[in-house]
Amino acid sequence: MMISRDQGRLLLPVRPGFVILSITIATVLQIALMLIFGRDGTWLPNFLLLVLLHWVLAAPRWINLGWAFFLGLCLDMLHYGLLGQHALAFVCMAALVLTLQRRLPHFTTLEQVPQIWGILFVGQIVLTSAGVLSTWTWPGWGAALKPFIEAVCWPTVVWLLQMPQRRAHDKDVHRPLAM
User: At CB < 8 A and 24+ separation, what contacts does 60-64 make?
Assistant: First the structure.
């Protein structure tokens, strides 16, 4: 079990089925946003990336660099872009999260925001650089806002993904899980 710093309570172990379900929902949401906004949505947050980074931090045994590469390739195919562009950026960001894996859980989700913003900013630089070097087209200044918007969405994504872990196995008034 893991202790959540925000609520001061123990979290239940992560279920692999919920991890896969959350990644699937984030992928469907990403496809919907892409269909609605098209190429004009360069400023929109990448919820698939946020879910991926959360699970790389919370469950690194299950969701690791291989998943980051695979999901990045899937996003490349959805965007009809350079194959490997998102994969490279996702792997770089997941590697940074794994590097900070022992440090980040000691902070609350609001205290994690500046560190996650730094990771997202580096990933956006890698993504934009790969796109500009391959196609010689600039995505626009809306892409510079993307790490800020994603960092603001981070606490909400973490709160939503930890919801199933906060409930108790059995309701026992004599032995609560809250500390």
Answer: 60/98, 60/101, 62/14, 62/16, 62/19, 63/19, 63/23, 64/94, 64/98
Tokens of 128: 């934009």
**Does an H or E element contain 9, and which?**
strand 9-11
Query: pLDDT for 7-50, tens place per residue?
Result: 556 777 888 899 999 999 999 999 999 899 887 778 889 999 99
Does residue 119 contact residue 97 with C-beta atoms inside 8 Å? Answer: yes
Paired tokens of 152 = 């603001």
pLDDT digits (tens, 9 = 90+) for 52-105: 999 999 999 899 999 999 999 999 898 877 888 999 999 999 999 999 999 998
Q: What is the value of pTM for the model shown?
A: 0.87
Rg (CA), the chain: 17
